[in-house]
Structures are given as structure tokens and as C-alpha cells.
Write a structure and sequence with these properties.
The complex is a heterodimer of chains A (379) and B (340).
Chain A (H helix, E strand, L loop, with lengths): L1 H17 L24 E6 L2 E7 L6 E9 L13 E4 L4 E3 L2 H10 L5 E4 L8 H8 L4 E2 L1 E2 L2 E2 L1 H6 L4 E4 L10 H5 L2 E4 L8 H6 L1 H8 L2 H23 L6 E4 L2 E2 L2 E4 L5 H8 L3 E2 L10 E4 H8 L4 E6 L7 H7 L7 H4 L3 E5 H4 L1 H4 L4 H12 L13 E3 L5
Parallel strand pairs in A: 3-4, 5-6, 5-10, 6-7, 10-11, 12-15, 12-17, 17-18
Antiparallel strand pairs in A: 1-2, 2-3, 8-9, 13-14, 14-16, 18-19
Helix pairs in contact in A: 7-8, 8-15
Chain B lengths: L1 H25 L7 H8 L6 H36 L11 H20 L8 H28 L3 H24 L3 H11 L7 H20 L2 H7 L3 H6 L4 H23 L5 H13 L4 H23 L10 H21 L1
Classes of the chains: A alpha/beta (379), B mainly alpha (340).
């Protein structure tokens, strides 16, 4: 009976979390010309005296996830900020929950400011592995179970955490005195919005000029490629992902990947859906709607390379899709490509991979895809 | 009079099963006009997608539900008779927990090893999931068989089964604790059960394995009837209690292991269906109860599969949620009526 109760409860959790559609309309009051963030939905940064005011909005309700003042350590703190959440910059000791955070520190040459990271066994990054081995960076556990004492011992001034709707902020901030800074990058649904979060690390490390330049270059490359795709005559159709236990979890029509499909000159089959969350859809519905789609994008998180044969072994229904028959399956080997660590700040490369698949004539002939490639038949 | 009642009862359940089976083919998330389905069934199909949906998706799913329903129900009956406990079900032997542990190792540990969530599964992990569930289930089954061949006392055996279930469950919990959200999500979904995992390609092996087990149960009916008299009487009548219980556990465990490997741990069917059979036929004769329980299990699983895939739902509802949701009120009403 307990088991049943557990099952029912966990089912309820899943159902609710799936339908947990985030509120992604940016609060009008916060949007003004002073905002230094141009593409993000969940963070606004404006100049405040010699520092910055940062507001992170809550995707799940009207409240704010947090308001912060970033103020240079070299200057005296204005009186009115005495009781505010203040981060003195450049930050000295950072705990980074996610690889999308520490990878920017690494790129900027500021990795010495990162003292602790989570889930370090999931990274393949050689530099990080070296720093872990030399004990310059500590592994501080996993999200559900932080090694609290080690975190306290690292004397963090800022903890960059990943906010979830259901997981409350841990008490670690109170124990360490560190500022808990929600890094809501993963919630952004525009590829450039997600990439723009790298600027936040720039503000925290006083390297904002470098990150501004870095981001502007991304925008230029992304937009110019996007513009070449907007007038293509033939827009192929595309759908996404693989089912699990008979259920497909499709990206919503307003999601990150749907935006990239659109910008790459393709029509996502579920584009009329305006959800940002993933949609649970029965396999027969996917079959009836997407059977004639031209392309099929899948993510491979195993160590094994996908082949058309291995897909057919997994589920013979796949073989009925046109994209399968025409060998138009587009794969990303998550682990090998470093997708989770790097792709967020390379949306232009993601876009280019898809343009190369959808409209190869728009990309140079000898282009080598970085993340997504068209799966070829094995000889 | 009683014979007629039984004949009509069995016939009624069979007819209901056929109707439900057809409904399973006709109804799903994609609304299809009745005429078109008939055309597909008569091979006069114009739309090929429709025929794929019906023959390659709905049909294997309905067949899986049918076989799994029969197997779990009868496995539950065997357990209830062997342990002389109305609350016994196949999960009591720890077999479902063993399967969960095996699957947990694949889903949760491969996630940890490969460094990325297996939430978007490769073929290896899909095949691996069934295989791991089967290995986990069979290992626990062997442990239970080893104990049962040594022990006469059924209560001790139940306790050992429960302890093994707890043990496997706690190892699974520890693995869950250290796993990625995506992997835990995948594991939870597996734990909710699904009839869609078999498909056309794996159907022959699944069907043959289940049918072998189902046939085996018919040979047990005489010994099960003797067991009902109590172990002392049964022993006096020349029944080798230990050998007999080993065989019953083997058959019941085998059926549970196969179903769990392909469909996940499906609760409730094994516990509730024997009660409905006993109530409907007012009999404790296993020559009748075994086929009756199987058929009721079939009907029940088909109803659940139908509801789980009703049009209007965006996707499949988890089978476990539906089995209990539909089954619990039925069992309560059966018990209340039989008390009157």
C-alpha cells in the first residue's frame, strides 16, 4: 500500500512538474533601456553608482528570485546598501553548481576564483580534473546532498546555484554567510538569452568588457547566419527526441531547441504549441504527426555511438519515420561533444550545425559539425 | 445450476475480454474513424500511418497487457494459496524489488558512469533495462528458492521475502540519492509500469515465455487444492511440501520476473484479481480459479490500458496509477458484498 502511495505521489509530482509551465513573460516594469542584458528573460542588470543592480525574476511566479548589488571591493560601500544583498567584486571564493558557470571562469582565466564545484565526476574537462587532483578546486557533493562542512571550510563569498521550482534554497547560505545567487541560465528559452548569462560572470569578476565583447561576437555570428536562413525557399520539417516507456517528451514549441530549429530555416512540427516545458506525448500521436517530417533530432547520452541499426533495435517503430528511412537523423553525442558544458555559449555553432544539416548549401563545404551531425549509414 | 453459472461467468469474462481487446485497437490518443480502422484490419488500408499505429503500436500493447494481466493475476493466486495469506502478491517474494534494483543499476549507475543522464536512452540502455530487470528478479528468485527448499514454515519465508525486498529497496534508494535528476526521473517512470515496452520485435519471445508459465500453472491446481487443507493435512496426503512450494514459487516468480522485465513493476493486479475470481465464482477449487483469475486479469489489464491511453490525455498515463485507481474500488466493493 505504501508502495502504491509512493507511486501515486511520485506520479503526481511528475505530472505537475511536466505541466509546470514557466511564466516567461518578462516583467514590463524591469525592462528599460538601461538594462545591460538584451536577450535574457530572467535577469536584468542595470548600472548602480559604481556597481550594478541585479534582479533575477522568478519564472514560476511574480516574485523575484533575488535582488543583488554588485559593488567593487576597492570602493567604500554606500550607506544605503548596508542592509542589502551585496556581492563585493571581483568575487574571491565561488562555489559553482553547474559547468555552465565554471566554464566561463575557465575561459576568462579566472578559474582560481572557483573553489568548489558540484558533481565533478560528470566532467571530462582536463583542466578542471587537474585542479581537482591538485586540490585547488574541491568537489562539494551533489545538489541533493552538499558536503556542507567542506563548503563552510572554503569560505565562499558567493554560491552560484541552479534554481528549481520545487527545490528550496538550502540553508548553506546562512551557514557560510555567502550570498546565494540563482543562476537561472537554463530557463532561458532564447539561445542568445541563455548565452548572455556569461556576462553575469563578467560582472562578478570585473571582466565585463571582455564578456561584453565575447557575447557581441556570438550575437553577430548567430544573427548573420540566422538572416541567411530566413529567406530559404524550402523549409524542411523537423521533430525531436526518443520515447521512453512509450512516452515521448517533446520540446515545447517555445523552447530553446524549437527556436534554433526556426532560426536554422526549418519548421518544428510542434511549433504551434507555445509551451517552453517538455510535452509528454503518446508514441502514436508522434507517429501520426511526425511520420513524414524531413529531419529527426536525437540526443545520445550513452557512450555508444548511435547507428540506424541500433535505433531500430531500440524500437522498430522508428523505422517507419521518413527521417529514419531517408537517413536524416541528426544526433548529438552529449558526452563526446561536451554539449552541456560548452554549447550554451556557442549557440552560433549549434545553429550552424543545424543549418549544415537542413541547408548544406548555406555553409562552407568542408564544415565539420561541433555538436549535431547527420547520422550516416555504417559501411 | 452451479455449473451453468460457472459456464456463463467464464463466457461472459471471455466476451468482455474480446470487446476490450477490440476497443484497445480502436481507441487511442489519435482519434481514428471506425470505418478507417475496419479498412486497416481488412487490409484495405489507404493510409499507411494508421496501419502502423494499429498493428505496430496498439496491437502489441494490447497483447502485452493481455499476457501481463493473466500472468500477474495467476502469480498472485499462487502466492495467496501458498502462503495462505489474502494479502500475498508476487511482489512479496522480493522479485519486483530485485528487478527494480537491477534496473536501478542500469539507469542510475550507467548515468553516473557515462557522465550524462540516460534520460534520452540509447538502444543499449533500453535492452539493458529489460535484461537488468530480469537478472535482478531471477537472482532474488533463486535466493528465495534456496530458502524455500530449506524451510518448512511459510511465515518465515514471507518474512525473508520482505527482508530481501527491503534490502534491495535500500540499495536502490542509496543509488537514487547519488543520481542525476534526469536519471531518477527515468527510473521513476520505469517504476510506474508500461505495456508499451514490448513492441512487435520482442513480442514473440515475451508471448512464448509467458504462455509457458501460464500453462505450467494448470498442472499445479491439484496440489494447490491440497495445500488449502493446511500443511499438516497436505503432508498426510503425501504431498511433499518443500518440493511443492519450490515449484509454486518458481512458476509464480518466473511469471513475475518476465512481466517486470518488460513492463516494469506492475502492482495490484496480482493482489486483487484472485479475490474477484473467488467472489464471482464462490469457489476455492484451483481447477476453476486458475483460468478464472487469468481471464479476470486479462480484462482488468485491458481496461487499464484502455483508460491509460484514452483520447484527451496527452500521453500515456502510468499503468500502475490506473490499475490501483480502477482496481481498489472494485476490490473494496467485492469484499463488502461478500461480507453481507
Amino acid at each position: 500500500m505504501r508502495k502504491l502511495l509512493f507511486i501515486c505521489l511520485s506520479m503526481a509530482c511528475i505530472l505537475f512538474s511536466c505541466s509546470d509551465n514557466v511564466n516567461d513573460t518578462k516583467k514590463e516594469s524591469n525592462v528599460d533601456n538601461d538594462n545591460l542584458m538584451k536577450y535574457t528573460s530572467y535577469i536584468d542588470v542595470i548600472n548602480y553608482k559604481s556597481g550594478y543592480y541585479v534582479n533575477i525574476s522568478n519564472p514560476w511566479n511574480e516574485n523575484s528570485l533575488g535582488e543583488f548589488y554588485l559593488y567593487p571591493d576597492s570602493l567604500e560601500l554606500p550607506n544605503e546598501l548596508a542592509n542589502k544583498a551585496v556581492i563585493r567584486t571581483p568575487v574571491q571564493n565561488v562555489i559553482a553548481y553547474s559547468s555552465t558557470q565554471w566554464s566561463v571562469f575557465l575561459e576568462l582565466g579566472e578559474i582560481s576564483r572557483v573553489k568548489g564545484i558540484l558533481e565533478s565526476n560528470y566532467t571530462d574537462n582536463i583542466e578542471i580534473k587537474r585542479l581537482l587532483a591538485e586540490k585547488k578546486i574541491e568537489d562539494v557533493g551533489i545538489e541533493t546532498s552538499l558536503k556542507t562542512e567542506i563548503v563552510i571550510n572554503l569560505h565562499p563569498d558567493v554560491i552560484l546555484y541552479t534554481p528549481y521550482s520545487t527545490v528550496p534554497k538550502t540553508e548553506i547560505g546562512d551557514l557560510t554567510g555567502a550570498v546565494m545567487f540563482p543562476f537561472a541560465d537554463y530557463l532561458e528559452n532564447h539561445p542568445l538569452g541563455r548565452a548572455e548569462w556569461l556576462k553575469v560572470i563578467g560582472f562578478l569578476t570585473c571582466r565585463e568588457k571582455d564578456t561584453e565583447k565575447w557575447f557581441d561576437e556570438i550575437v553577430n555570428r548567430y544573427d548573420s547566419l540566422k538572416n541567411t536562413c530566413q529567406n530559404v525557399e524550402n523549409r524542411p520539417t523537423v521533430f525531436s527526441d526518443l520515447p521512453f516507456e512509450g512516452q515521448w517528451y517533446l520540446p515545447g514549441g517555445a523552447s530553446y531547441i524549437a527556436q534554433i530549429f526556426h532560426d536554422a530555416g526549418a519548421d518544428y512540427i510542434w511549433s504551434d504549441n507555445n509551451s517552453t516545458a517538455s510535452l509528454p506525448v503518446d508514441a502514436e500521436t508522434v507517429l501520426s504527426k511526425a511520420r513524414d517530417a524531413d529531419f529527426w533530432r536525437v540526443m545520445n547520452s550513452t557512450n555508444h555511438k548511435f547507428t540506424y541499426e541500433s535505433l531500430a533495435v531500440e524500437n522498430e517503430l522508428y523505422t517507419y519515420f521518413k527521417a529514419y528511412k531517408n537517413r536524416n537523423v541528426i544526433v548529438c553525442d552529449i558526452r563526446e561533444s561536451g554539449y552541456f558544458e560548452k554549447s550554451e555559449y556557442e549557440p552560433d555553432l549549434l545553429l550552424k550545425d543545424f543549418v549544415y544539416a537542413f541547408h548544406p548549401e548555406l555553409v562552407e563545404d568542408d564544415y565539420k559539425p561541433h555538436y549535431f551531425y547527420r547520422l550516416k549509414d555504417e559501411k | 445450476m452451479k455449473n451453468r453459472r460457472i459456464t456463463f461467468g467464464i463466457l461472459g469474462i471471455i466476451v468482455l475480454g474480446i470487446v476490450l481487446f477490440m476497443l484497445n485497437l480502436f481507441v487511442g490518443s489519435v482519434m481514428v474513424p471506425f470505418d478507417d480502422i475496419l479498412k486497416v484490419l481488412l487490409h484495405d488500408n489507404t493510409d499507411k500511418t494508421l496501419s502502423v499505429i494499429i498493428f505496430n503500436y496498439r496491437l502489441p500493447q494490447a497483447l502485452t497487457a493481455l499476457l501481463a494481466g493473466a500472468a500477474l493475476a495467476v502469480a498472485g493466486l499462487l502466492m495467496q494459496t501458498l502462503f495462505r495469506n489474502p494479502l500475498a502478491d508476487p511482489s512479496m517474494l522480493g522479485i519486483s524489488s530485485g528487478a527494480s534494483l537491477g534496473v536501478g543499476m542500469v539507469i542510475l549507475l550507467t548515468g553516473a558512469i557515462s557522465g550524462a543522464a540516460v534520460s534520452s536512452f540509447g538502444w543499449w540502455s533500453t535492452v539493458g533495462v529489460s535484461l537488468a530487470a530480469f537478472i535482478g528478479a531471477v537472482l532474488v528468485l533463486f535466493v528465495m528458492l534456496a530458502f524455500s527448499s530449506r524451510m518448512k514454515n511459510m511465515t518465515t519465508l514471507i518474512i525473508i521475502g520482505l527482508m530481501i525486498a527491503y534490502l534491495a529497496g535500500s540499495i536502490t534508494d542509496i543509488m537514487k540519492f547519488f543520481s542525476l535528476k534526469e536519471d531518477i526521473h527515468a527510473f521513476v517512470i520505469w517504476g510506474m509500469g508500461s505495456f508499451s515496452g514490448v513492441g512487435v520485435s520482442k513480442m514473440p519471445i515475451f508471448a512464448i515465455s509467458i504462455i509457458i508459465g501460464l500453462i505450467a500453472t494448470f498442472f499445479l491446481s491439484k496440489n494447490l487444492n491440497i495445500l488449502l487443507l493446511g500443511e499438516m493435512y497436505a503432508a498426510n496426503l503425501g504431498l511433499n511440501i518443500r518440493k511443492n512450494s519450490v515449484i509454486i514459487i518458481l512458476v509464480s516468480g518466473y511469471l513475475t520476473a518476465i512481466v517486470t522485465a518488460y513492463c516494469g513493476p506492475i502492482a495490484f493486479v496480482g493482489l486483487a484479481m484472485p479475490h474477484i475470481a473467488r467472489f464471482l465464482f464462490k469457489s476455492s477449487d484451483h481447477r476453476l480459479l486458475i483460468p478464472a483469475t487469468m481471464l479476470i486479469g486479462v480484462d482488468m489489464a485491458l481496461v487499464c490500458n484502455l483508460i491509460a491511453r484514452m483520447p484527451g490525455f496527452d500521453g500515456n498515463l502510468p499503468v500502475n496509477a490506473v490499475t490501483a485507481f480502477i482496481g481498489a474500488p472494485v476490490v473494496i466493493s467485492v469484499i463488502l458484498k461478500s461480507r453481507k
